Amino acid sequence: MRVLVAGGAGFIGATMCARLLDRGDEVTCVDNLVTGSADNVTYLLDRKGISFVEADVSVGVPVEGSFGAVVNLACPASPADFGPLALEILDVGSRGVANLLALAERDGARFLQASTSEVYGEPLVHPQPESYWGNVNPVGPRSVYDEAKRFGEALTMAHHRKYGLEARIARIFNTYGPRMRANDGRMVSNFVNQALRGEPITVHGDGSQTRSFCYVDDEVTGLLALLDSSCTGPVNIGNDDERTVLDVAQLVLDLCGSTSGIIFVDRPADDPSQRRPDLTVAKRELGWQPATPLREGLARTIEWFKDRIGG
Ligand code: UDP
Q1: Is-above-0.90 flag for pTM?
Q2: CATH number, position 154
């Protein structure tokens, strides 16, 4: 099958492209490299069956030939990007999704939209099942991402209902692993890089807020299971091993053998206080569940970053 992967040079996208190639699919990777990395592209281009197009899908999708599937992973996704790239996020979450939907419809292709646990906002239901409608601040600093992703779900469902598009919607929970940007501002990349450089780990607030972290290989296995299934979704794809931020900070220090310690800094506005996926639908409909324990996934992530900063 020919698969178009939008955002294919990004953290999850690069692993998605590699896994599609592993199973014999042909891949056209489209990325504007705003948060994706040229290194991820170079590493991909060493393989057979892949081509790379540098383009902003919000403007257009300049690709040739027809596709059997379109996987949309294109969007800056770190909270640190929500300010500087606010308008780009709204563009890619609206015009970008619309352009990719048009292409999928032209080819009768299956369309996988990467949505997010952020659609649940500050959740009043815990853990979060897909049936929960969420609690999002529509004008807060995270709204550009949260609302763009909610709009992306609505647009995808409208095309599914109106034109019979074969849609798949994944709600991705916190994902970590090799190919995260070292400086992208997210928790795992910050903590690992700080510990490896001997700098104190910056815990936001008192660190009692929780997240549930999924290793990137597991995440992509879940996304592929959804793509291959007959389930429209939305489906939560993540790991339900919930931890406090402070626990993860301590675990990272342990695994790095670092004595750099922890400093407590201001917590960003609207930072959700708890997050854990209810995986009932993923298990039942996709027969998928995450397999990598946090300790093991973090150890692999630390090795990957160590090689890059020469630590
Ligand atoms: N966080 C932190 N220190 C950092 C970066 C993030 O304590 O240097 C916290 C952040 O406030 C949030 C959690 O870690 O509570 C996860 O943040 P991340 O940016 O990775 O993803 P989010 O789940 O907020 O999208």
Answers
A1: yes
A2: 3.40.50.720
